[in-house]
Design goal:
mainly alpha; two-stranded antiparallel ribbon; 4 helices; 2 strands; about 5% strand
């Protein structure tokens, strides 16, 4: 678990700094927005987020073994949803929305893999702790 924390810090630190800067740069109030089910959707930022993810995916490093088209499509859809959710919530400027979306498209699988590894490690440690506690309560020891 301790080896993972530096990896997370190294990965998230530049992104958090960029997100903090983006929080200060909000979209102009006259920007093109569309109302949908109570949400105000910034059309230009959403279009740039979609374009950034889709244009960066072919440039992403190839996996060994390859993902296959179904998993590659799934990663792309997840990154588009992440980028769109961020744009709707944060209302970044046009350029920043595009740049962050390119980053998500390029490193999307690595991000999903990193988060998945974190969740897997956490769940494994929870189960190991629970098994150890149950073993102590029942008087059985690990063989």
């Amino acid at each position: 678990m301790h080896e993972v924390v530096p990896d997370l810090a190294r990965f998230y630190l530049p992104w958090l700094a960029a997100a903090a800067v983006a929080a200060e740069e909000s979209a102009p109030s006259h920007a093109l927005t569309v109302q949908f089910d109570g949400l105000s959707l910034p059309v230009l930022q959403l279009a740039l987020a979609l374009a950034g993810v889709l244009m960066a995916r072919p440039l992403a490093p190839k996996r060994v073994p390859p993902l296959g088209w179904a998993k590659s499509l799934l990663v792309t859809v997840i990154m588009v949803l992440v980028a769109a959710s961020w744009v709707i919530e944060a209302r970044p400027g046009l350029l920043f929305a595009f740049v962050i979306s390119i980053g998500l498209g390029f490193s999307g699988y690595a991000l999903i893999e990193l988060i998945g590894g974190q969740v897997q490690t956490f769940v494994k440690s929870v189960f190991e702790g629970a098994i150890g506690t149950l073993g102590k309560l029942t008087g059985k020891r690990d063989q």
